[in-house]
Write a structure and sequence with these properties.
Elements: E1 3-6, H1 20-28, E2 48-51, E3 54-60, H2 61-64, E4 69-72, E5 75-76, E6 79-82, E7 91-95, E8 114-118, E9 120-121, E10 129-130, E11 132-139, E12 146-152, E13 158-161, E14 164-166, E15 168-173, E16 178-183, E17 191-198, E18 201-210, E19 219-223, E20 226-232, E21 238-243, E22 252-253, E23 259-260, E24 264-270, E25 276-282
Parallel strand pairs: 1-25, 6-7
Antiparallel strand pairs: 2-3, 3-6, 4-5, 4-11, 7-8, 8-18, 9-10, 11-17, 12-16, 12-18, 13-14, 13-17, 15-16, 19-20, 20-24, 21-22, 21-25, 23-24
């Protein structure tokens, strides 16, 4: 008898995943983020920078975005703009609730500040053009299984840790932003550079390392005339689905309630007469 399962259903996120950040804050504390700091950009202090005797709307980068480093192409940035939308030049801008330019109006995502970083011209016209990045070196917390963040206009966004690309998954969609996640379980406890890079115009905010894995492994074990299913206790709220065919479906939700012992969730089912496949989906 063939009993299979698929865990990739977890990449198809449901509404309750939008509550994930609040749940994680309650369980691990906002300060327990390894050595990464200012992940919500709320430490901003706007210090104007004088350029050739004039104040032209530039602000000191280290004061506006402490612990972060910005790059336009490979050029490290010493200034940021404030509530500024560039029409062609690459730049980093810190924005607040007063930002109302273009289709970005009303996209403040968390707290008082978010970051808008834009790819574009690096040295004025006629070019060249390049990407814009925001980076910080730190240690991923030992419990870190996934990295969550809010984002807007993320079609070109790339996330990496120590040069390793981290695929970005959409968890849920809100009116003015999406909730995204990256799998970082392979980097828990490691020190390196976390980098966000865009070739477009991207807003990010509210970064958070979570103890919950994106892809908890579902174990399926036959014992006598029963089938024992289990998965990690520290995982996002999940439902078990079953199907006679993993490709054609249909997938139906098993309504039996699992039990937990603080380490794993358990679900016991009678062994079906025909082949059956099982997977987890977000609740």
């Amino acid at each position: 008898m063939n009993h299979g399962y698929q865990a990739e259903g977890l990449t198809l996120q449901a509404v309750k995943w939008a509550l994930l950040a609040a749940a994680c804050l309650g369980s691990v504390g906002i300060q327990a983020q390894g050595t990464f700091t200012n992940l919500d950009f709320e430490m901003a202090s706007l210090v104007p920078v004088e350029i050739e005797g004039l104040y032209l709307g530039y602000y000191d980068f280290d004061s506006a975005l402490p612990f972060w480093t910005g790059y336009c192409g490979t050029n490290q940035q010493t200034t940021v703009r404030y509530n500024s939308l560039s029409l062609s030049a690459a730049q980093v801008s810190i924005i607040d609730s007063n930002f109302n330019q273009g289709y970005f109006a009303g996209t403040l995502q968390h707290g008082n500040y978010s970051v808008l970083f834009q790819a574009g011209l690096l040295n004025g016209p006629p070019g060249p053009t390049g990407s814009t990045s925001l980076a910080q070196v730190g240690q991923v917390p030992s419990f870190g299984q996934s990295l969550l963040f809010n984002g807007y206009d993320t079609w070109s966004l790339q996330v990496s840790f120590n040069g390793s690309n981290l695929p970005v998954y959409i968890l849920s969609s809100r009116t003015n932003y999406g909730v995204y996640a990256c799998d970082v379980r392979g980097f828990a406890g490691q020190t390196g550079e976390l980098r966000f890079t865009t070739m477009g115009n991207t807003i990010i905010d509210n970064l958070l390392f979570s103890p919950y894995p994106l892809f908890p492994q579902l174990s399926v074990n036959p014992v006598g005339d029963t089938l024992n299913l289990s998965w990690p206790f520290k995982s996002y709220p999940s439902l078990v689905q079953q199907s006679p065919d993993p490709n054609l479906g249909p997938w139906t939700i098993i309504t039996n309630r699992p039990t937990g012992d603080g380490s794993r969730w358990y679900l016991t089912l009678p062994i079906p007469p025909e082949s059956r496949y099982y997977r987890l989906i977000s609740q």
